[in-house]
Amino acid sequence: MCTPADTESNFTPLNLRHFQYNHKYRMFYCGVEKSGSTFWRRLLQQIDKNVIISPYNIRPENGLLNYKNLGNETMEELGDILKFSIKFMVARDPYTRLLSGYIDKLYSPNVYFWDSVGEHIVRTVRPNATMKSKTCGHDVTFLEFVKYVIKAQTTGEKKDSHFIPAVEICHPCKVKFDIISHMETLKFDTRYILETFNLRSYLSVIEGPSFNMLNDTIYDAAQAFVIMRTDMRRCVNVHTALLRVWKKLQIKGIVSLDTACPFKKDEVLDLTIDDLTSVIRKAFDSASLSMLQSQRKSLFLQYYRQIPLVVLRKLADVFKKDFDYFGYDQFPDILFKRTNED
């Protein structure tokens, strides 16, 4: 799984920016975007301050406040930290992680990522793109996104840490993590990690009703829409943008496909975060949980079936180390077993 070259290669600035260390508990964490990193960075803030409250008390947009990485450590200092710490990270199925990244950063209104990544994708992947698409980056398709990810990994051009392999971010062959958690079992694994560090006093914040990832996700979607509402108007109609947020929540299995967005065009400019979160929460509460789970799986498959097999195989290849190292299926039948393609 790890070659001598993997083990002997040096840490990069990318690695150091994702490494965190708590000296008191000798806790070393590498955060992978779209793999529980916002949750863990907030929880580590609470642990650093010795404050026993839910990490969700820190709003998602404040997850990087007081964030301290190991970017200023010398290699000798980093070596000592690795030698004497307990090291952990969280992995996630690459296919799920990539779709989540696309939906959150490019499909859903996100002016920062439209400017920083979307424009680049349109200009380099889409032939005969309109000037509006080139200057806005607001309408990247999932197929175009996948082609960008493959090209970025192949050429090294315009890579973004939200969309690159976890192996590249955390360098597990060199770090040799003691614990590799998985996003699919985050709550169970978090309990194990806290017990490992003798932080049992924090178990209450992940076992009680305050451990509510659902409310956090709903708030984050509403808050992002409201704060970007003005800036996005140069590229997309605000009501259309809200419909994308609604679709995002359907893809995540929070809102039923049978529930239409209730807001009219003349209402969207005055919507508050509380207005939006309240309506989304009611939509969730009115739906069957089993139906929402089935819907989430169905829409996941729907997106990946847009990707020709020849392209999907290239994507599987550039993420091969993640599949191998973290134990995920590189060629799952649900994605690769198709009757209408070779």
Task: Please explain how this structure is put together.
- The protein has 342 residues and is mostly helical.
- The chain is 55% helix and 5% strand.
- It contains 19 helices and four strands.
- Strands 1-2-3-4 form a four-stranded mixed sheet.
- Strand 1 (19-22) and strand 2 (27-30) form a beta hairpin.
- The radius of gyration is 21 Å and the shape is globular.
- The model has no long low-confidence stretch (mean pLDDT 93).
Search tags:
342 residues; mainly alpha; 4-stranded mixed sheet; 19 helices; 55% helix; 5% strand
Write the layout of secondary structure elements.
Layout: H1 4-8, H2 13-18, E1 19-22, E2 27-30, H3 37-48, H4 75-84, E3 86-91, H5 94-107, H6 111-125, H7 131-136, H8 142-155, H9 166-170, H10 172-175, E4 179-182, H11 186-196, H12 203-207, H13 213-228, H14 238-251, H15 273-285, H16 289-304, H17 309-318, H18 320-326, H19 333-336
Parallel strand pairs: 2-3, 3-4
Antiparallel strand pairs: 1-2
